[in-house]
Request: fold
Amino acid sequence: MRARWLALLAGWTLAGCSRPAEMPSSFDLATRLAASLTALPSPLATATLPPSQTAPPSATPSVTPSPVPSDTPTTGPSPTETLPALPPDDPRTGLDLRTPDYRDGFAARFTWGEQAHAGAVTTWEDERLKAVDTLADANAWWTTTGPNAVAADFYAEITASMGACSGRDAAGFAVRVDLSSGYALEVSCDGAYRVRKFTTGFVDVLRDWTSAEAIVQGPEAVNRLGFMAQGANLYVFANNLRLGEVIKDTSRFAGSFGLYAMAFDTPGLAVYFDDFELWYVTN
Reply:
């Protein structure tokens, strides 16, 4: 049974696909995505997601499973620090932000996929997920959660710590992910953010780069990123503050979560991720 579990685990951590993405004319870039896990529906997910595909050899990461971890993420509430009251118009009103429905503090390995290839390396290191974008280009490679962290309507947070960076080098947090499709919030070294929609082979910019005082800038900056999806309504946050107004899109309604580093100016950009928390939205 253990050998079978490890075989399944190794399958989870492989890249699902690698395809070029076409941008609008003002963003004449080619973007490839690598999702590391089949997004399986949770009891609260409302959409059935297709099985993963075998990656071409050039995009298949090198993965060596370790023994079964004894410390696994919790699926129940985990008390957090006292937070200030939300403003009346905050879409998170009604959620108990002190007690997530699911929490992963990265104490255990293989709760997220890992990958290693020419474009990116993602590994578990010192109880954090380390994502490295090896080339300063328009390519993005994400790694995703396991089947316990799949949702339709939700609010989710992750802590992103930048390494050496400049300009639009960014940390990426993707949601409603299925292979190479999903929505992504990117927060840059110079204090800006953007929101993009990835559909296999294509990329749409839902909100272009916008500066935000809520974002901590510079190398070694630490930001708490938040993403809320409720039906067609998408909201993004940094350090508990909402970034801009609601974004509406009806393309995707369920999936897993993804993390990645996005190097524009700094080859080998490293971003460290920790303390993933998830709240299910049921109304």
The longest strand covers residues 269-280.
